[in-house]
């Protein structure tokens, strides 16, 4: 029986622990044995004997990548790491290391491949056990929940100006709406293309700051547009005490992941927003679908093809359309939509399905996007 090592570390985000547990259960369901190796303290047990019988290693966000220097035999093992956010935030961990990158968005794959890394599309997934642990009667669901952390555009803009002031005029261009458009503009999305900036530690930092800046602008615009169209949101996340709040909306502090899942299950809708995910789905979409809560998201080609055509989520073109969309959904339509969504996510978007696909890909050529 083949063995899989999962490298883990203490995380401030409960969702990461849920990913690790979901992956571990999926590995066991595939018939492998598994070891969960905690690298938090640095007191890592001797792994040489274990690596000798290991078929594959897994981790989240390049955890364990620094072990290559201690255990050269890691290079003989397929070591896959799942990058759950945009890779610009993790360049220092994976760059120039022989990791196989699992990216949750096709644009992330293109970026990593342009840097010379081996990268595969591996969309976010869910652990079905979460759906069995939580339930909420559909007739009791209320409101539109918007899980989001407050980030100040001015704060990140000031940091960017201190490190690379020549980037500011580019960020102000109308065509630069998210990190993907910025990376494309700078030449970081095509292998062999001359890049406008050398990839240094400072460049990597400013790219990550730029992503946060662009997210902050887009997030605030969505919140303001909802208020202007009399669409009340319940906004939950860190640091909103520092924001200028819209009086219409209700603001709540961040909650531990299990409590957030309960709140999702009790909400009628979850509003999804992440401009860095245009060719992939965020886990927030999948957990909401699993828990029988309707997802509202801005329309894009990926979500339309994967979920919109199945009648599994609600997609809008303009924020002003949301009231009309919501009013058109009768209790019967809502039940059909959420049932479709739950069936689809349990069929197509579990960690078991992802690892089955990965196992197939390991025995064939890398899939092309």
In brief:
The chain is α/β, with parallel strands linked by helices.
Outline the fold blueprint.
Elements: E1 3-8, H1 14-29, E2 33-38, H2 48-51, E3 54-60, E4 78-83, H3 91-94, E5 100-103, H4 106-114, E6 118-121, H5 129-133, E7 144-147, H6 153-163, H7 168-171, H8 179-186, H9 201-228, E8 234-236, E9 250-252, H10 257-266, E10 269-272, H11 283-290, E11 294-298, H12 301-306, E12 314-316, H13 322-327, H14 331-348, H15 351-362
Parallel strand pairs: 1-2, 1-3, 3-4, 4-5, 5-6, 7-8, 7-10, 8-9, 10-11, 11-12
Give your account of this protein's structure:
This protein is of the alpha/beta class. The chain starts with a strand and ends in a 7-residue tail after the last helix.
Unreliable runs: 365-369
Outline type: globular
Strand tally is 12
Main sheet: strand order: 2-1-3-4-5-6
Element order: H for helix, E for strand: EHEHEEHEHEHEHHHHEEHEHEHEHHH
User: Major β-sheet, in short?
Assistant: 6 strands, parallel
Please report which band the strand proportion falls in: under 5%, 5-15%, 15-25%, 25-35%, 35-45% or over 45%.
Answer: 5-15%
Helix and strand content put the structural class at alpha/beta
How far is the N terminus from the C terminus? 32 Å
Count of helices?
15
Using only C-alpha atoms, the radius of gyration works out to: 21 Å
**Assembly state (oligomeric):** single chain
- Average residue pLDDT: 90
Helix content: 40-55%
Which properties best describe this structure?
globular; 369 residues; six-stranded parallel β-sheet; alpha/beta; 40% helix; disordered C terminus
